[in-house]
Amino acid sequence: MNGSTVLRRRAGLLCLAVAPVLLLVATAVDPALGEGAWETHVGADPEGAVWHTVLLHWAYVLFVPGFLSLLGPIHARGRVLGAIAWVATLVGLVTFAGLVLTDVTAIAVAETVEPATFTAFEERVSTYTWMSAGWQLPGLVGWFVAFALTPVAAARAKVIGWWPAGAALAGFALYFLFAIEPVPLSLAGPAVLTAANIVIVAKAWGTVGGGAESTWKQKVGEACLVAAPVALAVGVATMPGTATRIDPFSTDPQLAQASAFFLHLSWLLFIPGMLAVVRRITGRGRVFAFVAGGIAVVGLLHWNGLMIGDYLALGVQQTLDPAQQAMVTTRTDGYAMFGLAVAIPGMAGALLGLILVPVAASRAGLVRWYVPVITGVGVVAFLMLTTGRVTGLVAPVLLLIGYGLVARALRSGQDQAPVAAAPVVVPAT
């Protein structure tokens, strides 16, 4: 039995139990349920709308490690469905959690302008192709597939029983159908999902040591360690502006949209990369690696989603006058719940985690001491030198070098010791 695997998967199962509870609370406090225009409801109760958005975002963030833990022991029966659900979770559900955050700027706009201007703002944002193709389509499809296939794959693999899997599907179906209906109908889905997930966690708790992750998942994660800095470089290089200056998004809307997508893609790709590193640290330093990986993954789950704010900022610049733009910025900055629960932990967790995970790899003997130094300098360069297209490339280059060395070390170790292992059942405690 791999103690590191048990630690990670049980932490994920705890997230799976908490996530639907947050979904239930988020739905209960939503001021925009029932009849009437969305902007009218949230304009009357902006704080309640922000609480709803933050809780909903956190619910989907926690569903990600929850689903990954449930899918982890699947190696034979259900492996095809499990593979599809794994990709849908790490691409679609992660993206959908960020898509929820569009409401934060929209709430500030609804507080500030007249309904006609808000409609113009919404219509302008709806024309952004990069947002539709890069966020909405993969986010909505991935969200649906992850929730629909994960319990089915786990039941087929006998990780859980069919009736709790069916209950989870029923809960999701009720939420899908009635999420914006008045209370108590809107609460039916989250309530059923909460009960089902508690049973699922209790059943899966004793099977979390069912072997290591499949080899292909490890290889995908290693590839992402290289792909993520490359996407970051593209995101920086497409920022509106010059070699040393970043201009307002409205000066080049197409470049601004492309930049926001590739920045989001970069932080998203780092997530399976971080998991691949932590997964390989099973001996010395595994607890430190678990903590470092947790900080990185949770931070990145927030941080990649914050990139969607660039589209809303572009919409504000293109439809509101300067005075209204300033008011929207002031209102957005004043939402303390959003800042404390999403923005700050997102940036701090992601960037700190990108430093700590290579440190954990070095402590475990996977890489030499200079590798975390390179990645650490790369993170600092991102904070200090992302002032233009050329100066901003320093950070992606350093991160590509550092994480490329980490990926090479993981591949070398993989050749010597394959990841896949025989299933082992761990008695429930």
From TrEMBL:
Keywords: Membrane, Transmembrane, Transmembrane helix. The chain crosses the membrane at residues 50-71, 83-110, 130-149, 161-180, 186-208, 220-239, 259-278, 287-314, 334-357, 369-387, 393-410. The keyword Calcium does not apply. This is Uncharacterized protein.
